[in-house]
Design brief:
This protein is of the alpha/beta class and 345 residues long. The protein has 11 helices and 14 strands. Bound molecules: iron/sulfur cluster. The site of iron/sulfur cluster has 9 residues, from loops.
């Protein structure tokens, strides 16, 4: 069983380091939660330069505010019913729980788990109200079960929740958004995978940000799910000092492809409070796409997107090849630009 650490002191002790002075101050605002699986992925010799450390252990930079709020995408104002967020015509998000296995320091929904907040698992009455709201909006065809992490909910209860959405004829796709294959693969017991595989409409959207996270245990979980008929896609977030490097991203996407997980989205970090130090700027994402062009097939290349503030929606971003974006010409080992006569040969 994976051990969980809820204080910096316990995590530092496990890592064999002195607890950094700032951690307690940061934890008082954004509580620490990490597990042994994640701590084992850390190369301790790198300290806070390690990409897994940076994602899950506190940094004083979190208190260097962005002057943003805790809901920059205005999700709370786009609720059709409590816990049901509608941001697109045909899709809606359901906040199944506020629980997670780890607290990602860059999380854009930290309003659900920051100090003083605690969103419990969805109740029967809340679930019923959501089903009523969905029936009133038959144009909603897809639900994303999110949170928090819906896979933190007990097997039997999660089965009831998925079954409830599955029973709605209007719903053709149920996305299960979960980070657990990456951070707590042991959660995916054979019984749990059996349960998920029982739902035809289910797709699993997971969240690997760095190639070091695609280890043997995580890979085995993804492979089992796919073998049992559950499609698995990955959404990553571009994070300064973690993966804002085209070569690191290429390695991540190649490792995912090798286990048949489709890199689906690469998001720019959302401007939630406390994550400014992770922000890369849009150019870093475009640089990744330029680098991948011609090196990696479209199967391995995700869509780069940014969420507009105030619920403005998701916008996909592409390099402007018409004004000189790069293309890797593998045979001649050089980068050529659009428009370029050499492209026509
Ligand atoms: S698992 Fe998801 S919801 Fe939970 S802290 Fe990480 S990013 Fe946030």
């Amino acid at each position: 069983m994976t051990e969980f650490f809820r204080t910096g002191r316990a995590a530092a002790e496990f890592l064999g380091i002195d607890e950094p002075d700032d951690w307690r101050r940061v934890e008082a605002v954004y509580p620490l939660l990490v597990n042994r699986h994640c701590l084992d992925l850390i190369d301790r010799s790198k300290g806070d330069a390690d990409p897994v450390w940076r994602q899950f252990l506190p940094s004083a930079a979190e208190l260097d505010d962005w002057k943003s709020d805790f809901d920059p995408l205005a999700e709370e104002r786009q609720m059709l019913a409590p816990r049901l967020i509608r941001r697109f015509l045909d899709r809606a998000v359901v906040l199944v729980t506020g629980n997670c296995a780890v607290h990602c320091r860059f999380c854009f929904r930290k309003r659900l788990w920051k100090q003083g907040a605690k969103l419990a698992d969805i109740s029967d009455a809340e679930l019923e109200a959501i089903l009523v709201a969905l029936r009133e909006h038959p144009e909603i065809r897809e639900v994303l079960l999110s949170g928090g992490d819906p896979c933190m909910v007990a097997d039997g209860r999660l089965r009831e929740i998925i079954a409830a959405f599955s029973s709605l004829e209007q719903i053709s796709v149920i996305r299960l958004g979960t980070k657990l294959p990456a951070v707590w693969p042991e959660r995916f017991t054979p019984q749990f995978i059996d349960m998920l595989a029982g739902f035809d409409k289910l797709w699993l959207l997971t969240h690997f940000n760095h190639p070091n996270e695609v280890d043997a245990a995580a890979s085995a979980v993804c492979r089992s799910l796919i073998r049992r008929g559950v499609p698995v896609l990955n959404q990553c977030v571009l994070l300064r000092g973690v993966n804002d490097n085209p070569e690191v991203m290429e390695e991540l996407f190649r490792r995912l492809l090798a286990i048949k997980v489709k890199p689906h989205y690469m998001f720019h970090v959302d401007p939630v409070r406390g994550v400014r130090h992770f922000a890369t700027g849009i150019e870093a994402g475009l640089e990744v796409l330029r680098y991948l062009r011609g090196r990696l097939s479209s199967l391995g290349t995700p869509t780069f997107a940014i969420d507009l503030p105030e619920g403005g929606g998701k916008v996909a971003l592409q390099p402007d090849y018409s004004s000189g974006g790069g293309f890797c010409d593998i045979h001649n080992k050089k980068i050529i630009n659009y428009p370029d006569k050499e492209m026509k040969k």
